[in-house]
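*** Residues and shapes ***
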Amino acid sequence: ALGKPIVVTGLPELRSYQPLIHYAESTEAFVGAVETSLQKGAKNSVEQVAMAQEHTWEKRVARVLALLEPLL
């Protein structure tokens, strides 16, 4: 949401967000991705902004409520 580079590891679910984030498979890859991100600086891309807008708390709550509604 802030346009900051994101480097993650250990959460395979986040792989689908590449190339908007950097997913590192190892310690060396993590360090390399952090170094690369620091050199390039923050870029607030259109894709990052669009993804952030799809993951607001309001939209998450609406999704959870839609899943729970049939059960109530």
About this structure: The beta strands are 7-9, 22-24.
